[in-house]
Specification:
The chain is mainly beta. It has one domain (1-68). 10% of the residues lie in helices and 32% in strands. It contains one helix and four strands, in the order ββαββ. It has a two-stranded antiparallel sheet. Strands 3-4 form a two-stranded antiparallel ribbon.
Amino acid sequence: MALDEPNDLDQQFNVDGYKYIVNKDFFNRAQPIKVDFQTYGFKLDCAIEFNAGGCSGCGTSKSSSCGC
């Protein structure tokens, strides 16, 4: 997740006053995508399992999400 400006390859969503921009090809592979704000940042969940061993950055359990 990063700050970015939309382009022709992106799909835009406005949810609760926040604008989300997702690459259309990635969105087609990853949907559904869920973004939750937590105390120390965002938690992202989607249909793609990025790392079968969990998130290497924070040591979470085996999951397609990472709360880093």
